[in-house]
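Q: Can I borrow your eye for a moment on a structure tokenisation matter? Would you mind producing a protein record, from residues through to fold? Write it directly below this note and I will take it from there.
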Amino acid sequence: MSDRETIAVYDARAQDYADRFGTDAPGGALRRFMDLLPEGGRVLDLGCGPGHSAAHLAQAGFVVDATDASAGMARLAAAQPGVSARQARFEDLTATALYDGIWANFALLHAPRDQMDGHLAAIATALRLRGVLHIGMKTGDGTARDPIGRRYTYYTPDDLRSRLDRAGFDIVGEETGSDTGLAGTNDPWIILRARLRG
């Protein structure tokens, strides 16, 4: 993510976001992701926000790296026990066969559409054989800014599934729903869990 306005919103609202969306226990989607990982595996929280998911992963015994384009978010994540966090954009992912899983939970929706296939290719390269990707995205069409200025790129479920297939992933789990986020709007979403083909 390189959209300055979006990053500025997260920098300004980092603590507010952390206070609103922090949890004491991992949610169902995170538990289902963890169930697909090898015990003690290495995981990247890509677009980690304040690091709540990264902290739950670390508490569960995984080795956790976390990155976020927002310096404010990365600072909060780095304060989580057991989490190695740093400021980095999606395009800074250059690892090869390093991770057993990558958790990209409602983060890649901030990337421009013409960069998505490249990001998915980099994720595939960063995963070990049969590694697992969790990706959460808002569904719809086009690109727009929300009421507080964040830029979103929306995908139909079929488009997202096709992109994952082209990147070398098999879908192994899916959920859909809608929730109210930081901007106060209720938006539909899809979560896909996908395993890199061996």
Summary: The longest helix spans residues 4-21. The chain has a mean pLDDT of 92. The first strand starts at residue 42 and ends at 46.
